[in-house]
């Protein structure tokens, strides 16, 4: 049996695509886990990201590394698909002719055909996450036309996955031991508009929560415009829906938001954040900001800093604006903010957020939380609560003591829940001690 080793770059949505493809290959090929060193693999399968400049550079460097492995006799062939391959379908084969085959980002039939396998890469899943959590992609594409984003050009218009298909997929995952679902899409709050002519995310959350075995459901990639408020009811009242919301806001200045074509203004954004905190007590908000977008002067950047101080997001990431061909921003604005200014603004924003994150984490000392054990490393359980999402947030570290756990093999706890008291914290991670029933 020939071997295939996947390499997935970019977001969790790409990871789901890889898992669908691997599911079709499983049984026909040996799947070599990503990162595992082998003397030789027959196929290196690279899923690329083409969102912004840094991501494109990483994808190209990864492809070149795979080509080098092929030339050194460590790989038989290199297949490339995903966003970068889709976006530059004519340029990439000329740029890197050593790649054996290039494929797109949405139609996987040609890729599977090249492997001699029939199908379109759906609906099965070969999990590349730990077995107790999985990402659930509820739609593809995006109808938004934000100035900086090339995703609609790469992935096309928004297409929701039928609710019954998602429930079936989630049920199959639960049957395999998945306890946590991370709901993802280019825009999760848009879900259902094309199929049901209404925003149906809250209804989907309710149906997913009824699946036996699913204990946590968390939401990522929510757009603030016309946010469906019944989702907040699910977060407040449904014990399986985590009080955690990933909602990329990108900026707060009305001028910059208008240039970004975000269809919201400062007042709307502030009202939405206030509403979330009032209706879902204890909610943890993760957001993303962009610095250096055309139209962002010193005044607009100071407004952004003031807003972050005011809103005190528990989690915040940032990007430096990258002019992307084919986007509204590239066609209508000059990339006028110097790179060194973008970097200094990025550094200042993240330094501010570091202090806010530290303060939030320290406020949790002495509290008791339910955590799920993701891993056991060097005598320590690596855990998360409902307030930490895998791969993007910090962790809760719990030291293993054979006496405390009755000598039970520690790896047997991976994927299980336990109660933990938080005893210490830094800006990223927390330290906890297990709580046992007396």
Architecture overview:
The protein contains 15 helices and 18 strands. The protein has 438 residues and is an alpha/beta fold. The protein has a 6-stranded parallel beta sheet. Helix 9 (201-209) packs parallel to helix 10 (230-237) and helix 13 packs parallel to helix 15.
Task: Tell me the layout of helices and strands.
Elements: E1 3-8, H1 12-25, E2 30-31, E3 41-48, H2 53-71, E4 75-82, H3 83-87, H4 92-95, E5 101-102, H5 109-114, E6 133-137, E7 139-140, H6 151-155, E8 159-160, H7 163-175, E9 180-184, H8 193-196, H9 201-209, E10 216-219, H10 230-237, E11 241-246, H11 254-260, H12 266-279, E12 284-291, H13 298-311, E13 315-320, H14 328-332, H15 339-363, E14 368-377, E15 380-384, E16 396-399, E17 417-425, E18 430-434
Parallel strand pairs: 1-2, 1-3, 3-4, 4-5, 6-9, 9-10, 10-11, 11-12, 12-13, 16-18
Antiparallel strand pairs: 7-8, 14-15, 14-17, 15-16, 17-18
Helix pairs in contact: 9-10, 13-15
């Amino acid at each position: 049996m020939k071997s295939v080793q996947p390499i997935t770059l970019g977001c969790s949505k790409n990871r789901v695509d890889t898992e669908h493809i691997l599911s079709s290959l499983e049984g026909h090929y040996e799947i070599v886990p990503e990162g595992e060193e082998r003397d030789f693999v027959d196929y290196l399968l690279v899923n690329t990201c083409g969102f912004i400049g840094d991501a494109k550079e990483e994808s190209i460097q990864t492809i070149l590394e795979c080509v080098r492995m092929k030339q050194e006799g460590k790989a038989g062939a290199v297949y490339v698909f995903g966003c970068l391959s889709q976006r530059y379908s004519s340029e990439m084969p000329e740029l890197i002719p050593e790649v054996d085959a290039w494929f797109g980002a949405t139609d996987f039939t040609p890729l599977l055909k090249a492997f001699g396998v029939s199908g379109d890469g759906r609906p099965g899943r070969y999990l590349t996450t730990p077995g107790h959590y999985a990402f659930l992609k509820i739609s593809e594409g995006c109808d938004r036309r934000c100035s900086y984003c090339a995703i609609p050009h790469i992935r096309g218009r928004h297409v929701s996955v039928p609710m019954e298909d998602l429930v079936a997929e989630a049920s199959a995952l639960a049957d395999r031991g998945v306890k946590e679902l991370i709901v993802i899409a280019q825009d999760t709050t848009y879900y259902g508009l094309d199929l049901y002519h209404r925003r149906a995310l809250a209804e989907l959350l309710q149906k997913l929560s009824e699946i036996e075995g699913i204990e946590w459901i968390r939401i990522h990639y929510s757009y603030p415009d016309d946010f469906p408020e019944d989702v907040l009811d699910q977060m407040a009242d449904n014990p399986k829906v985590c009080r955690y919301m990933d909602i990329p806001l990108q900026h707060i200045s009305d001028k910059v938001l208008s240039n970004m074509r975000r269809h919201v203004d400062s007042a709307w954004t502030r009202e939405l954040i206030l509403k979330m905190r009032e209706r879902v007590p204890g909610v943890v908000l993760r957001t993303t900001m962009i610095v250096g977008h055309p139209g962002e002067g010193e005044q607009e950047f100071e407004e952004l800093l003031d807003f972050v101080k005011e809103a005190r997001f528990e989690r915040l990431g940032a990007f430096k604006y990258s002019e992307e061909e084919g986007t509204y921003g590239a066609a209508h604005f000059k990339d006028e903010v110097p790179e060194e200014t973008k970097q200094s603004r990025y550094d200042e924003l993240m330094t501010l957020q570091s202090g806010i994150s530290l303060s939030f984490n320290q406020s949790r000392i002495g509290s008791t939380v339910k955590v799920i054990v993701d891993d056991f490393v060097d005598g320590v359980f690596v855990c998360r609560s409902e307030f930490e999402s895998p791969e993007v947030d910090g962790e809760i570290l719990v030291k293993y003591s054979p006496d405390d756990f009755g000598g039970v093999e520690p790896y047997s706890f991976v994927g299980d829940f336990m109660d933990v008291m938080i005893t210490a914290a830094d800006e990223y991670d927390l330290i906890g001690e297990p709580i046992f029933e007396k």
